[in-house]
Write a structure and sequence with these properties.
- The protein is mostly helical.
- The protein contains 36 helices and 5 strands.
- The strands form 2 sheets. The chain has a 3-stranded antiparallel sheet, covered by helices on one side. Strands 4-5 form a two-stranded antiparallel ribbon.
- A hairpin with a 5-residue loop joins strand 2 and strand 3.
- The N terminus and C terminus are likely disordered.
Length: about 675
């Protein structure tokens, strides 16, 4: 029966297609159909004025023999009963010879995992597509794989059989036997051709190495009895003994050691068999290796020895065994890390406990200067931290230039932070200059880390423990204001954060925190209510004179001062009228000036502020509000606040309405 084909619906159809007709097609046939349709579309696009007609009769020359016959759908329409190619140039029946084909050969895999191959001409047209032909397995290699001893024996005895001929680069029959664990076949091959015993594959593997890697103990025994070389490594310099340890096979290790395998040979990365055995926590193998002369102080290319590897991988039994045999518990890797540091980093509690019980040094820093306590705090391993705190010197911590509190705050480890505070670590510890330079904002305190992480709970915890909010060059209060976190702002102000601080790298004539709070008016007002200077916002060297054009530049670094800052030749810093003229802030100029006027007496607006108020008719009342003289009620309020002070004012037995007025709650006073 001819292979089924689905012809295209005619152009007269309404564009609908019965997809149930395809339900019996395989993945390969559907793929073939898609390619044919693609070719048809290309043909139609190239010659739109020409219509190609095909009859519905099967054509033997056009039938693709690579496709399996499929059953037709029940009662197919007349137009679907014949099998034909919808493309005028169907693919070839037989695949071209890849050696002589002049074009492109493309290999791919279908959704069902079947390997396919397609041949294309130089112009991109398809020549042939079909399943990728499988290479026929040579009889000898097939017989070995199937364990057919009689067949192998017959082929070996055949004069035409060349046992030194590989089935693929470097892969001989002896490797095939070792791979599949056919020890009987292996004996036959070695009897017929003893010279194969140490031949290497394309990866440098001898039959012995192949057998060990595959865990074929019977083949290992055969090869050892026939005198296979135990020391020939693969191209990664891994010996059979190393691969036996990697496979965690004590029996294979014992067999190799009984035949005199060298125990201290290192692979290309410097690993020994003992170090590989510790990875698998196999004390039995470790004991055999040490009895055979293995050294526990050899290190790999990273300066790591077996004990370090055991600690790193959390292998307690191997670690205990190595310690009992005299391994150095304070050994350091090439980067200075100790076994204790590595165990703390990876959260191996039992390893840390074991090392500390053997008096491992918890105050030995690596090249980064950090101690095991630092890395445990960073990872939030509280049980390990509780073990390290009693044996860690606070003086040694200070010399590292970074406190565990910094790392706990940076990673939002609140429980760890609380544990360290209770243990007496200094909440005002500052990063060393070298470490501070790693951050663009030059942060130094744990408080800064918590504020920038918007971690209100950690901020509260640090402030309650006595953290000073004014130690950093760029104040945590500015960070909180920039992030719009009013809760953190209030916490910092309540703990005496300096509202009127400036930024040394970006000097201003007004409190720098205003730059970040002006667009958030409730926060801006809160800062003014709690001692923020307002009079300096109206200081201007130009006064009523025209202001020079403001040149702006964009900061290359993403600092917190602002992304656009005006340049000025004045050494006093950026003025408020210049800052408020930045496009992102100028739209708020009216409400900002309106709030500021509630906190000053007689002031004169400079020409730039007047210009902003004149830019919007709705701000005319603000301009009238600034006119001199200011209301007596306003001047009295300012005088009372100046004489009494804001903090003392809260303690005075004054009527509530008066207190609200003094705190700039105008609506409450009008209501009363």
């Amino acid at each position: 029966m001819a292979a089924a084909r689905i012809s295209h619906p005619s152009s007269a159809a309404a564009g609908f297609e019965d997809y149930s007709l395809y339900s019996n097609l395989s993945d390969d046939e559907l793929l073939q159909l898609a390619i044919e349709r693609s070719l048809t579309d290309m043909q139609l696009n190239a010659t739109p004025q020409t219509a190609c007609h095909h009859d519905n009769k099967p054509n033997a020359s056009n039938t693709n023999r690579n496709q399996l016959p499929v059953s037709s759908p029940p009662n197919p329409p007349a137009s679907q009963t014949g099998a034909h190619y919808s493309s005028p140039n169907p693919p070839m029946e037989k695949p071209p010879d890849p050696k002589t084909f002049d074009g492109t050969v493309s290999r791919f895999m279908t959704g069902s995992g079947k390997r396919m191959v397609a041949y294309y001409k130089a112009d991109g047209s398809l020549v042939h597509i079909g399943p990728e032909p499988e290479k026929e397995e040579e009889p000898l290699f097939r017989a070995i794989r199937e364990g057919d001893g009689s067949r192998v024996k017959a082929l070996v005895m055949c004069p035409g059989t060349n046992l030194m001929l590989p089935s693929k680069p470097g892969w001989l029959a002896v490797h095939q036997a070792a791979w599949f664990g056919q020890d009987t076949c292996l004996k036959m091959l070695l009897s017929a051709q003893p010279g194969m015993i140490n031949k290497r594959t394309s990866q440098g593997e001898t039959p012995l190495l192949v057998a060990v890697s595959r865990g074929q103990l019977g083949c290992v025994q055969v090869l050892l009895e026939d005198g296979a070389d135990l020391e020939i490594p693969n191209y990664d310099k891994e010996t059979p003994l190393y691969k036996a340890c990697e496979r965690n096979s004590a029996a294979t290790v014992a067999a190799l050691l009984n035949h005199g395998a060298a125990v201290n040979t290192q692979c290309i990365q410097g690993w020994t068999a003992l170090q590989e055995a510790t990875v698998h926590n196999n004390v039995e193998i470790c004991e055999m290796l040490l009895k055979a002369g293995a050294k526990h102080n050899l290190r790999n290319m990273y300066g790591i020895g077996p004990l370090f590897t055991a600690a790193q991988n959390g292998q307690l039994a191997a670690l205990r065994f190595l310690i009992r045999h005299g391994a150095d518990i304070n050994t350091q890797a090439a980067d200075g890390a100790t076994a204790l540091y590595e165990a703390a980093k990876n959260g191996h509690q039992d390893i840390v406990e074991m090392l500390l019980s053997q008096n491992a040094d918890a105050n030995k820093p690596g090249k980064t200067g950090m101690l095991p306590l630092h890395i445990a705090a960073q990872r939030g391993s509280n049980t390990i931290i509780s073990m390290l705190i009693p044996v860690t010197s606070k003086a040694r911590v200070r010399r590292t230039g970074i406190s565990p509190l910094h790392l706990a705050a940076e990673r939002n480890r609140d429980d760890t932070l609380e544990m360290l505070i209770e243990a007496g670590f200094d909440v005002n510890a500052q990063l060393s200059e070298e470490r501070s330079r790693l951050y663009e904002d030059r942060r130094t305190t744990p408080l800064f880390f918590s504020v920038i992480n918007n971690n209100v709970e950690a901020v509260s915890m640090l402030l309650a423990a006595g953290a000073d909010p004014n130690l950093d060059m760029f104040k945590p209060l500015m960070v909180a204001a920039r992030m719009g976190c009013i809760q953190t702002v209030k916490l910092l102000v309540e703990h005496n954060a300096d509202i009127n601080a400036s930024i040394p790298t970006h000097p201003t004539t007004f409190p720098a925190v205003y730059m970040f709070s002006m667009k958030y008016l409730p926060m801006f007002k809160y800062l003014l209510d709690n001692g923020g200077h307002s009079l300096s916002c109206f200081d201007c060297v130009y006064g009523s004179q025209p202001h020079p054009p403001i040149k702006t530049k964009r900061s290359e670094s993403n600092d917190y001062s602002t992304q656009i800052l005006p340049e000025t030749v004045l050494k006093t810093g950026v003025q408020f009228c210049e800052m408020i003229s930045i496009p992102s802030i100028s739209r708020w100029a009216g409400p900002i000036i309106d709030i500021l006027l509630d906190y000053v007496g007689h002031v004169t607006l400079c020409s730039k502020l007047i210009e902003h108020l004149d830019s919007y008719s709705g701000w005319s009342n603000i301009k009238e509000k600034s006119a001199l003289p200011r209301p007596l009620l306003q001047l009295c309020r300012l005088q009372i606040l100046q004489l009494v002070g804001r903090q003392q004012l809260k303690r005075l037995p004054l009527p509530g309405s008066l207190l609200r007025f003094l705190h700039h709650n105008e609506a409450a006073l009008e209501d009363s």
